[in-house]
Amino acid sequence: MPPGAGADLLATRHAGLAQIEPMTIRGERWLDAMAPDESSWDGAALIVELRYFPAIADAAIDAGLAFERAALPN
Description:
Blueprint: E1 9-14, E2 17-22, H1 25-34, E3 40-42, E4 45-49, H2 53-62, E5 67-68
Parallel strand pairs: 1-5
Antiparallel strand pairs: 1-2, 2-4, 3-4
């Protein structure tokens, strides 16, 4: 199964940053709604410092989204 299959959001780590990519329309709408205007984007993917990732992941899970984060440290 490819990374992110079945997940609404897929997170990958790039140096000190996390890239959060929507994998479904639901994930895309959630990211768009929760991200501040000054957020950094790479296409449809939100780019955040790793220190912010746990709070975003928790909020996504609390919203009922399936989140794959196997590529990030615990």
